[in-house]
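Why do we care about 3D structure at all? Because function follows from shape, and shape follows, mostly, from sequence. That is the central idea of this module. The next example makes it concrete: a single protein chain, its amino acid sequence, and then its structure expressed as C-alpha cells.
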Amino acid sequence: MSFQTLEAVASRTAVVRVNLLPGEFAEARKAKQLRLALAGSLVVVLGACAGAYGITAGHVAAADEALAAEQARTPALLAEQEPYAEVPTVLKQVEDAVQVREAVAQGDIPWYSYLDQLAAVAPTELSFTSLNLQLTTTADAGASADPLQAAGVARIAVVGETKTQGKVADWLDAVAGVPGVADPRLSSSTLDPSTGVVTFNADMTLTADALLGEQ
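And the structure:
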C-alpha cells in the first residue's frame, strides 16, 4: 500500500484514481474477452452438432438393422409365395372358361325350367306320360308347315292323362301364360270308357324369348 493510500485512509478522504494505461490496452482486453465469448459459443455449437450427429447416427444404425432384417426375410417370403405362383394363371383360365360357357349358352334353352313350369301349371289329376323336345332348324324358324303354327326356336310335344276334357283345356290356358311359350294347342284327345281316363296330345312353340341370352 502506498503512502498516498495510507494517508487517504488515515484522513478518510477520497482518492482520485487515474487510469494511466494507453487506450490500446483496454481495446486489447475487450478483444480478448470477445474472443473468449466466441470460443465458448463455438464450443457450445460444436457440442450441439456432436449430439445431433450421435442421435442421427443412432437412427441410421437402427434403420440399417431394420433393413437388414427385412432383406433377410425376403428369400423366405419368396419361397412361401412360390406354391401360389400359378394362381393368377388358373383364375384367368377359369374366367375365360366362364365367358366361353356364357357365350355358348346364349343360344341354349333351359329345358329343365320349362318342364318344371309346364308341370307347375298343371291342374290336379293331370299327368304327363311323355315329352318330346325338339329344336327348330334355321330353315324352319321363319316358316312352318302349318301356316297357323307360330314360328319359334323349338317345339314341345306332350302326351298326358287326366279325368276330364276340362282339365286339359285349363292346362292349355295356363301354359299360354308361361313366358316364351306360344300357340299351345290340343292335337288329339281320347276318352277310354272302361277307365274314364282321357289321353291327350298337345304341342306348343318356344319363341326366341325362351333362349338363355334373352332372359
